[in-house]
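hey so u asked for the seq, here:
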Amino acid sequence: MFKPLSLFVGLRYTRAKRRNHFISFISFISIAGIALGVTALITVLSVMNGFEKELRERILGVASHVMITSPSQGMDHWQDLVPMVDVYPEVISKAPYVAAEGMLSNDGVVSGTMIRGVLPDEEPKVSSLADNMILGELADLKAGKYNIILGKDLANRMRIRIGDKVTLVTPQASVTPVGIMPRLKRFTVVGVFEAGMYEYDNALALIHLNDAAKLFLKPGQVTGLRLKLTDMFYAPRLTQQLVSDLPFGYVVSDWTRQHANFFRAVRTEKTVMFVILTLIVAVAAFNIVSTLVMVVTDKKADIAILRTLGASPGTIMRIFIVQGVVIGAFGTLLGVGGGVALATNIDVIVPAIERMFGVEFLSAEVYYISDLPSDMQTSDILKISGVAFLLSLVATLYPAWRASRTQPAEALRYE
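ran it, structure tokens below
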């Protein structure tokens, strides 16, 4: 793009000491503004990526990558389904489950609950519930013992402790001589888990798979099969393959569909934040316009001399494009360096600020995620750098065009 003369003169104008110090000040403000905007963009997007990753891991710590269910809400001979999914190398583990709804009652406190029947030996292969236990163990769920494990908030709300008895009321009813009565069963609380997601900690209860099948009148049946993959982002593609390969009568879903609204909202928020913070870069980039306009005015005599020596309007235009691009590139590089440094050390910088000023930005008593996670992605850095540099380049076009339109005779009339 740049001829040697344009590049040489443009770089000379950039590093030369100007008579007008105000121009140098505006150039510094432009560089600082671009650097600040790029730093803010990289840091904010990295933190938002970190929150998204943290929430995704917490959701998938209880949910599953892929679920295979039956429209009849009951799946017979689920073991026959295992060889069908084992042919996919992306599937690393699977576990059956029973899902139902009920009400828990204890000492006059009643709460709606999501009941999940699991096999204690198989569940750790598809979720991290075993690692999230704060009291008891997943292995305490034994068939026929009617033990139950509750989410932390659910246990606190119902004032339940380990060893307490709770009554589970199921939607199914039993016909007795005195009429239709709801099915009730007493369970012993043997554990409490904390998944870090209010949706699960406040409403999920775990019981043994066999107890759940018997209690909800599904003997020998399960609700479905849960799959864990080598790569969670492969789940939508595997779902499509399973839909086409499995026999008719199975319903396949994945985590992106179960929580589609949540992750769509996060992506929308990231997009809006990117646009808003890009305006900071745009304002700083267009400061280059005022800088170059003043430089063109200051260098009119030089431009006229170059024109009389044979320089074309295109050469003059490229000289000032070089100058603006150098300012934009320098500001972008400073911003990338600052953003990378800030994003990679956010877990150290934020606690230091909290200790310095005696504040707590994310209280552990209010927020499940009490620190600022960061997940810096190369694609974001490249995108931000490209946008900042492009805005800087666009900002140079008008001043450079004005410089190329300078008439030598008019410029040298009063010299």
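Residues 4-57+263-412 form one domain. Residues 1 and 318 are 8 Å apart (CA to CA).
lmk if thats what u needed
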